[in-house]
Amino acid sequence: MGSQLCSGKTLGLMTNLSAYCTLFCMNFVQTNGCLFIIFLSNNAQLQFTRWLSPILFTSWLDLVNEIYNYPFDNSQDVISWKCNKNGVFSTRSVYDSLTSNDQGISFNHIWKARIPHRIKVFMWLLENNAVLTKDDVLTKDNLLKKNWLGSPTCYFCSSHECIDHLFFLCPIAKVLWGLIGLCIGASNIPGNLTQYKQWISHWLPGGQQVYTFCVAEICWAIWKKRNSACFENKRLKNPAEILSYACALMSYWAGLYGAEMQGKIVEGVKLLLSCASRMMAQQQHPNPPLLLPPAHSQVDDMDDSTDAEA
């Protein structure tokens, strides 16, 4: 808070000068508000409710001397908010003031992303490992830390649920990231949020506008389907269900962008939906083909064929 002391008729000691009035509660302050004009009219006679040490008493005398020497006039006292250029209070100015000297991680990529506010909060929690899964924030791991007695098993597989597992390492998540990888020409998939930032910048250079957009819609879709399985007992039948929901989110959130970027997002949605439809068709095939090639090399295949001929 900033102020300009003029007449002393509206500003007091607690407003403008020192912490003495709050640290050593004075009877005068409690009854009169300790306005400067009243303080001076009482010849600076105040009754403290706590004894002052010699050092503090000397400082108090210096303060009183400063008040008596201040050039008061008949102008109106002015109160302004010094953290804002226009002098008006705003929550944003408070946040900027508190974080101006921060040396930690910047989350501007989240707060400036064109996604709904609730999703921004979700992503902020996710990057701070604060989403209550069974391991972390709202995941089961975090719940276990709070003495939760339920099962730590993931709702999509039999592994231990944590943030990295649920959103990146679970077989369901791997399929989703694999499909997105195929759409952008990637040959691998990320294993956590840190890897995602490197992964997306490598395989989608120049697409900074949608980096947070992409991970947000996938993670939010996974989170919603996970909660449906948790609270509504709606078991996931196919990863395509999550992908379809994510595409619906993308189509809706695309309205937050300009016409050019909106058109690119819609094209990406069509491509993902075509992948989802093919996935659904593969599920009905007696021997569904693999989405990605097997891990062994062609040399292994040649060795196998040679052994068969022998």
Properties at a glance:
single chain; 310 residues; mainly alpha; 2 domains; two-stranded antiparallel ribbon; two-stranded parallel sheet; 4 strands; elongated; disordered C terminus
What topology emerges from the helices and strands here?
Layout: E1 2-4, H1 13-16, H2 20-23, H3 27-32, H4 36-41, H5 54-68, E2 78-80, H6 91-99, H7 108-111, H8 117-127, E3 132-134, E4 138-139, H9 140-145, H10 163-169, H11 171-184, H12 193-203, H13 211-231, H14 239-253, H15 259-283, H16 298-309
Parallel strand pairs: 3-4
Antiparallel strand pairs: 1-2
Return residue spans where pLDDT drops below 50 for at least 5 consecutive residues: 12-33, 286-303, 305-310
Decide which structural class fits the backbone: mainly alpha
Numbering strands along the chain, what is their spatial order in the largest sheet? 1-2
What portion of residues belong to β-strands?
A: under 5%
Share of residues in helices: 40-55%
How many domains? Answer: 2
Structure summary, number of beta strands: 4
| First-residue to last-residue Cα separation | 88 Å
* Biggest beta sheet attributes: 2 strands, antiparallel
Mean pLDDT: 74
Shape: elongated
Q: What is the radius of gyration computed over CA atoms, rounded to a whole number of angstroms?
A: 32 Å
Number of helices: 16
